[in-house]
Amino acid sequence: MNEMVFATRNSQLFINPQLNTQVTSWMNAEYGFEQRWLLVRPDQAAKRLNTSSKHQLNVYVYLPGNTIISLTNSYYHFGSGDAYFSDMRFSRRLKPKGMELEIAANNLFNARTYVEFHTSSFTLFEYIYELRPAQALVTLRFGF
To answer: Each residue of 107-121: pLDDT tens digit?
Structure first.
């Protein structure tokens, strides 16, 4: 981009354990953890260590009458700060065949932005997401 080339040495470590479990016959839960460390060492410059972590917890409750309630939660920690995200959904199949009602509450904590890093041996990408404000959404689906 700036027509300059310089030598650099990068090291990275990435771990991502996940757990999916059926808590009861009517409830499932998922937990995931992601931790990244990136050490960048450009020639003639000081080392720079970038770290990031992400926790996700999702709970799904299955009720009689083809009804599902889900709660999805995420916590991100990056050099630029912390971010919390949470969504809740209620979904029910209605008696007339092919109809489904969904009521969703998105971005419950009204987060405005968050930053995410993706790395490889040769690249470092920083994504800055601008989020929609907290909202409620009612959807009625029809199938034919």
So the answer is: 999 988 877 767 666
